[in-house]
Structure formats: C-alpha cells, structure tokens
Amino acid sequence: MLPKSHDAMRPSINHGHLSLLRGARLYIQDRTLKLSGLSKSHFYDKINSCGLRFKVGPFNIQLQTQIRPLCDNIYNLYGESTLLTELDFVDFHLELNKPKGIRALIKPQVNFLLDKFSPFKPLPLDQSCAFFEWGLNWAIAQHAMHYLIIHSAVVEKSGKAIIFPGIPGAGKSTLCAALCHHGWRLLSDEQALISVKNGQISPLARPICLKNESIDIISKLCPDAKFGTTVRGTSKGDLSHIKAPTDALALIDQCSKPSLIVFPQYAPEIAQSHLTSMASGVALIEMITHCFNYTTLGRDGFNTLARTVKQSKCYQFRYNDLNDAMLVLNELHEEANRCDQS
Amino acid sequence: MRPILNNVLKRPSIVQSFSIIQWELCIRQARASNLTARLFYVLKKHKLTSDIPARVMNHFHCADVKANCQYREIHFEAIEITKCLSKVNIIPIFLKGTGYALAQTAHQGRTCNDIDILVPVDQLKAAEIQLGREGWVGENISTYDAYYYRQWMHELPPMLHLDRKTVLDVHHHLLPTTVKANFNIENVIYAAQTHHINFHGQEIMVKTLALEDMILHSACHLFSEGKLDKGLRDLTDIQILLEQYHSEHGVGSANKLLRRAEQLNLDHQLMLATRYVAALLLNTVDLTQYNQHHCPSRPFATIRSRLLDWCYLRLIIPHHHISKRPSTAIATILILVRSHYLKMPLRLLIPHLTIKCWYGLKANFKAAD
C-alpha cells in the first residue's frame, strides 16, 4: 500500500486558473498522492515487483519494469502524475523487460508487453525509455475509440487550443516544447484526443519527445525544461523527453475546445515565419492522413473531424526561428480572441 | 476456480455485483481472447449494460467500434474476392468469420484475423492464378512449409493482398486430406447457401456454407485443432449458431443436425461441441438429445470422454496468463498430441515433426548469432 506519512503527501491542484497558479503556490487540501511523493526506495519496490499504477491523462496505467534507467526516467519525468491504488481500474497493464535466452548475454534487448502480449519486436536495451513512450502511444491509439486520435501536438491558452498536425520531422514537438514553456498549456505532444461525444480535447500531458538538433535548441530556449535520459541511435535518431510542465498536470482534467489548426513545417531556408490560410475542405483531407483511428471510427470519425475543422481556423505555417514563430502564433491567438469578442 | 470470464459467460447476471477490480480482470481476459465485443453483445442481449461503469464501457465501446469496422471491411473484401474469381467462373464459399458476417449469423461482436474461402479442388489452381492477377500473393514462408501445405493440408499457403494487407486462406476442404475418416466435400459445396448483399448501392451474390454445415465446420475446427487460443470465442459462435438453427427448424432440429453430422463423419465433434456449450455457456437451446447421442464403435468410451473433459474444461478458457493453471500445460500437450494423431498417420507425422524440430533449432542458432 501507499505510504501514509504526511510529508509524503504533496498538495495537488485540480482546479483554478493558470495565472493564479503562476502567482502564488496554492495549497489546496487534496488526498491524491503524486508519484514524486513516494520515497525512491518505495518507488523502486513498486515498479520492480507488482507494478506502479498511475494516471496518464484520462488513462490509468500500470507499469512493471526492472530496467533501472527506465525506472529513473519515469521517476524524473512522471513525478507530477497522480498515483493510483489497487482499487482503481487500470486500462493498460504494461511491462518492459529483458527477454530471456542466450541472446541476452550477447546483445541485451527489451520487450514491450501489454498484458503479456507483445505487439512489437524487441529493441536494444538502451532504447527502453523511448520504447515505453512508443508502446504507450500504440496502446492508446489501439484502445481509445471514444476519441478521434490525431497525430499532432496540442497547446492551449485562455480556452483556445491549437492543434499542430504533422508528419515526423515537421517540427511540431519543438514548437510545442517552446510554446508550453512560454505561456501556453501543454495538452499533448503526440496525440490529440478529441472526444467523439462532445468534440473537446482531453489533455494527455505526457513528456515531450525531442529529436536530434531540437534537444540543444530547446535546452537553450527553455532553461527551466527538465530533460530525461537521452537515447542515442534509435530509428528516429537521438531523442530525449522533457517533463510536462507542472501547470499542464495541475489542469489535467480540464478539457479544451479546438479553435486553431496549424500545419507546421520547419523550413530552415526561409527568413521569416510564413502563415497561409487554408480552406477547411483542404485541411480536412489533410487531417485524415494524420489520424490514427479515422477509418476504424467510420461515420463517427468523419463527424468528429468535420466538427473540429468547422469550428477552427486552419493555416499552413512555415517557420525557421522559434522566437519569431511564437510571436506569430501569439498574434494569431489574440486575433482569434478578438474575433470571438466582437 | 474458473476464470472470471467463464463465469460471466455462464451466468451473465453476476456482473450486476461486480466490483471495479472484477471488471478489470474480466476486460483483460476478454481482450486477450478477442472476446470483448462478443461479451458486450451478450451483456446487451441480457440487458445488463446499465451496470457497466464508464471506464469499463470505454473498453467495450472500443471493441464494438473495431468489430463494426471489420464487419464493413469484410463485406468489401468478400465482394472484391467474389468479383475477382467470377472472371474465371469460380464461385467461392466464404467460411468462418467472413461467412458469419455475410450470412448475418453469429456475426455479433465477432472479429477475425483473415478471410477464409472454399473452392472446389479442381478449380484451386485457376483460383490461385486469378487471385495472383489481382494482387494476392503467397506469404513469405519456408520452402518446406509451402510443400507441406500443398501436399497434406486442406488449404493453400496463406495469401496476402499487396495493397490492403488482408490475409486470405484458400481451402479446398474443411479437413486435411490426411484425416482418416474424411467426408466428401462436394456434399458441402452443393448445400452452400446464397446471399444477396447490398454494399454501397451495388447488389452482389455471395455464398456461404449452409447453417448446419457452419455449425459442423466450427465444431470440427474447434475439436480437431491442437491450439485452443480462440476456443472460448469459437464455442460462443457455436452456441449462437445452434440457437439460430433451432429457431429456424423448430422441433426435430437436433435429429436433422445429427443426421447431417453422421453423413459427414463429424458426429463426435458435434457431440463434444454441444457438451461444452451446455457446460460452459448460458444456453437457451435444449441440447440433451445431442449429449445422449452415442457414437458407435468406440472402445473405452467412458475413459475417453473423462479424459477429454479433463482437457477441454482446462483449455476452453481465456487466452490470458491469469486464467492459466499448472494443469493447463499438461492438457495443452495432450490435446496437441491428439490433434496431430487425428490429423496424420504416424508415418507422416514423425518425419514432419523431425523436420520442423530441425528448422526450429536452426532458427534459434541464427537468432543467437
């Protein structure tokens, strides 16, 4: 069971406005326990044996692993996540462990298992941290059909969410990391969860995955970003995750309405950021290619996507410099606000 | 103690008193055995869905959405395959999951991994060539496996569609050619039923097995196979098919079905199927007549049936690690041996197992390098 000592209990904030959060440290009495509230030895005990149960956005997961670097990474990156007890329903029982056999001695590997079922071939052991994130992405995309899931980053400010759909390498994570350290709230870095029922986006607020040069760029631009282990030589190059900002986790239950859809494209050759308006029909067709479960959802998939596109303004966005890009997006946001008020 | 999913299938009303932890285990077991959507159907049928907590409902909803998507896809594939083969005057008969979807029986919450068709053996070559023209190619398997399929099995090596990645099994019989007491497949092909299906405005004729042959095929599949990963799902299929058959044929259904089973030498499999449907599932059909049916010329009948009971009651469980017991492993081996014994005479089986063993070892060494 979880420790009951008072110093292990950290206050968690489940409501309140963003600006309030930044001003003063609010101590709202709450019985929920954060992952970082566990002592390190207790944390290892849990995660190594029966598995650690915690919340990831709207999902409840259980993770069991004995791979030390992965445990450390979880402790560092998921510290603000709410712990669950044995009496909570768990959606995904995950396990990352070394496969047995002679091979383990020569070339150690890691397996990803969902409830003892392994959907992927094993990866080299030093990619464990990335494998956990990829595996969880897969589990969510496969089992959450109450959402239309779009491969995109999502950030929010004053109730208006921007969806950044994009192929890998378009620069959506870099943009997302920069924005959510400069006044925006992180909803998701990888998957936009749009409710089929009401069209609202549920925050996932998982660590943001940065690749190759982006790691350096963001560590300079956002000195308060907390980096996890850097994994080298994956199929996507070097990558490192940064911890989701505290405010993103504090407001984890607060859904958001999609207002802007921006297709980002990092373009080193251009001098200035360039924003082009997109017809909603074109945006819809383009969005379909970024969905994980559009086909599976059938009619619901189309209706949800159409509703999202209809209520949003759509743009193509080519950018080079992040500071400039943030300026443009802030202006866009203010303009959308003005439009709403008038 | 029986797995929780078995308990629910036997007595669905127990979910009314389920704690969230029991729900969790139930969902895990259903998910591991491809039964979530089917279980949802069972609960809907018994009007028990209002007892499902929201978090659990998400999983049922997910399985339901996936099953519906597959139902649409199956119709699309069935039309593509029927059209493709009609160019060389072959009418395929759709089997198992695809057949259920087209015939609208036991399709509720049913998912499948591949499409199975049956064509007459003298048209097999022509069918393979024609399917090849439209993008179906043989999956990458070893030369020995390919030889084994063509020489001894009742189907071609699995085919894969190059664009859509759908897997297709082309059968020319329902049982391997090496089975001792086999039946004449023409009998089954002759009895096949035709359905007119409407897919996005186009009407097309497709064929499936007759309902009684569907039941017998499912039973013979379940009780001749060595692997029972999907045993529980297959048994629920049989239960729904039996219900449909009895409601269509009324009094004397059991006699009719038994007569057909005897004709195809599948009465023992039918007897086993009904026996375990009665034992393991909530069932509204009177199955006593099947269970009283004695197959003649079987020495040690009581010991045999006790042994089979011991095995099958341990194996028709969710394909999930929490439901397995130490004795499950013994039962698995016994049933595997039985299935091979039924499938092949020893003079074929021993060389086959030796070769498979050798290839397995070789692959292991390669992996370790």
The number of distinct β-strands of chain B equals 7
> Strand pairing plus helix content of chain A: what structural class?
alpha+beta
Radius of gyration of chain A: 20 Å
Q: What is the CATH topology descriptor of chain B?
A: Beta Polymerase, domain 2
Shape of chain A: globular
Which blocks of ≥5 consecutive residues of chain A have pLDDT under 50? Answer: 1-30
Average pLDDT figure of chain A: 86
CATH class of chain B: Alpha Beta
Largest sheet of chain B: 7 strands, mixed
Question: What helical percentage do the residues of chain B reach?
Answer: 55-70%
- Low-pLDDT parts of chain B are none
Main sheet makeup of chain A: 8 strands, mixed
Q: Estimate the helix proportion of chain A, in percent.
A: 25-40%
Distance between the termini of chain A: 54 Å
Q: Which sequence of SSEs, written as H and E, runs from N to C of chain B?
A: HHHHEHEHEHEEHEEHHHHHHHH
Query: What order do the strands of the largest sheet of chain B run in, or round the barrel if closed?
Result: 3-4-5-2-1-7-6
Structural class of chain B: alpha/beta
- Give the chain pair forming the largest contact, with residue counts: A-B, 24 and 23 residues
Q: Treating each run of at least 4 consecutive H or I residues as one helix, how many helices of chain A?
A: 12
Annotation, overall tally of beta strands of chain A: 16
**In oligomeric terms, what are we looking at?**
heterodimer
